[in-house]
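2.7 Reproducibility. Because tokenized structures are sensitive to small changes in the input, we list the exact sequence used for non-specific serine/threonine protein kinase, including any N-terminal residues retained from the expression construct. No trimming or masking was applied before prediction.
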Amino acid sequence: MGNCNFRTENTDPTISLNHHQFQFHYPIGKGGFGKVWRVVHKKTKVSYAMKEMQKRRIISKKSVHSVMNERRLLAILRHPFIVNMRFAFQDRENLYLAMDLMPGGDLRFHLGRQRRFTEEQTRFFVACILSGLEYLHMNGIIHRDIKPENLVLDDKGYVRLTDFGIARIWQPENGNETSGTPGYMAPEVICRQNHNIQADYFAVGVIVYEFMLGRRPYQGRNRKEIRDAILAKQVQIRKPDIPEGWSVEAADFANKLLQRKPQQRLGLNGPSEVKSHAWLRNVSWQKIFEKSQTSPFIPSLENNFDSKQVMNEWKDEAELAEVKESSMQDLFVGYFFDATLQPDNNNITQPKEQALKN
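Resulting structure tokens (single pass, no recycling of outputs):
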């Protein structure tokens, strides 16, 4: 991975971390900018998931804002149902982001193996997801990319939210921010309209539908086809569609989250409205928060990732941007973070509840 050099005038003067302080074991994931490694901090012996992201690849994909936005948000967030940042630093070629290690893999990997989850498993996963979303939403943040790939499991089978690259602090005029994953994007987002926290609840509805029926409600080969499918028909789970072992309440929960108009969608009045649905009436939210309840799905702690996907190399090396060294370093000033040096900042300013309802 090359030698680190933190003493140039264009890198952070406060940096006291480098990748030599971590023992890199093996890759456990692969993204658009680099690989995710299982690492151990040599001094403390604590294991982390370390994102190693190539600066030139980030620049080539015009993703500097997304990467820096994730770093800024994670610095002010801390919660048991999100994947928390512990360290962030850089060298000349790469950015490094050390996060909580989630050895259970992501829900997309397990869905690919199982095809579907049971109602009990899905309800437990949704309770975890809602616990994370409640924290974000009450702090005025929309995740905007809730999908199985961004829902990762710890060793006890509890789900946490990850990937905050396109998350945003809510602003009333945000119709131009249409990033997301087609198939999970709310209609108001895919149609370039202003959107709020209800967009995240639509994605939860897609996930419940998918876990129940083994397919997403709106399908297509690209964003346009999915948009056309959403505009053509309001998808609903009918009683004859409900699989054996699933309840009418589960279908009703998904249907109310999948409403195309956000004003008619469950969650319009905030997280408590979603948590109060009949399908979740028996959830012990305190036990979920304390993580004292046994998960109905406990993953194996080995091989919870697709090794073929992780080991594949990128095919666009020749297309990477040629950027002047000084210009490249200027783009990532301020990336450094060390959680051990931070005050206890578990909360950020709470917005007025009415603002979240607009």
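Residues 119-138 form the longest helix (20 residues).
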